[in-house]
Amino acid sequence: MPQQINLCTPLLLAPKRYFSAQTMAQALAVFVVLGGGLCAAWVWNLGRSAAEMAQLKASQATELASLQSALLANAASAAPLSPDLQAQVQSLRSQVQAQEKVLLALQEGRMVPGAAHSDRLALVSRSIPGPVWLTGVDADATRLEVTGYTLEPSALNEWVNRLAFSPLMQGLRLATVKVQSARLAKATAEATAAPTGREAWSFTLVSAQPPAPVVSAAGGTP
After folding, report:
1. H-helix or E-strand containing 23?
2. CB of 155 within 8 A of CB of 132?
3. d(CA 124, CA 166)
4. How many CB atoms lie within 10 A of CB 201?
5. If phi over 0 gives left and psi between -120 and 50 gives alpha, with beta otherwise, what is residue 152?
6. In this model, does residue 117 exceed pLDDT 60?
7. What is the Cα–Cα distance from 37 to 79, expressed in whole angstroms?
8. Beta carbons within 8 Å of 195's beta carbon, 6+ residues apart
9. What is the mean pLDDT of residues 116-139?
10. Which residues of 12-36 are buried (b: 16+ CB within 10 A; e: fewer)?
11. CA 34, CA 40: separation in Å to the nearest integer?
12. Secondary element (H or E) of residue 10
């Protein structure tokens, strides 16, 4: 009895080979190409990093040299000052200390703006009568002393009253008035402008703060 053979049956077909030699060779070639590309990229990145590191090192070396130069210059400038510069510095320090004292006095209320020594001196110079000339003025916060000569003693009365009633003399009162007769021949050099042989009077005016009242101790014996 004849048999029928079906050639389309999968069991009778030739088996497929998925890992043939050709396929493996192609895959190996692809891996080699990819590996070579990765290695080339890694080498390029490594070279660029090395170049950047060398550039950074050179920059740091330059900055270090600049810093050392600055330190040397600073050490050189820290040398002792010359005597002239030291004198200037001391003078400036003294001026600053004097200004600080004035500022402290203003803050403590001991000096009122417009009533400083210079204002009192300006008041004296502006109010000097015609027949009066001065030989000295001494002023501080608690005292004003004026010395000089006059050809007319009566001119001193009005001048003393004008000074006494000025707001700049607040807190001071006339403490001493001395008027003595003198000849111009015996006067100081400031008196030489007056007519020779005419009698003059030397004077001293002292205005000062009144002394503080003495407070007796509590429980003391009268």
Report:
1. helix 21-77
2. yes
3. 10
4. 19
5. beta
6. yes
7. 64
8. 184
9. 80
10. eeeeeeeeeeeeeeeeeeeeeeeee
11. 10
12. none
Question: Which residue spans within the chain are E strands per DSSP?
Answer: 132-139, 143-150, 173-183, 199-208
Instruction: Give me the pLDDT at residue 116, please.
Output: 59
| Residue of 99 and 132 predicted with greater confidence | 132
76-to-62, 86, 133 alpha-carbon distances in Å: 21, 17, 58
Place of tokens 């400031």: 190
pTM of this structure: 0.39
pLDDT digits (tens, 9 = 90+) for 35-89: 888 888 877 877 777 777 778 877 877 888 888 888 787 776 666 667 777 777 7
Taking only the tens place, the pLDDT of each residue in 171-217 is 777 767 788 876 654 544 454 444 445 677 888 888 776 665 555 54
Do the Cβ atoms of 190 and 134 come closer than 8 Å? yes
Task: State both tokens at 92.
Answer: 């400036």
15-26 average pLDDT score: 68
CA-only gyration radius of the chain, Å: 54
Residue-wise over 118-139: b if at least 16 C-beta within 10 A, else e?
ebbeebbeeeebebbbebebeb
Could you tell me the two tokens for 167?
A: 């707001």
Backbone torsions φ then ψ of 20, nearest 5 degrees: -80, 170
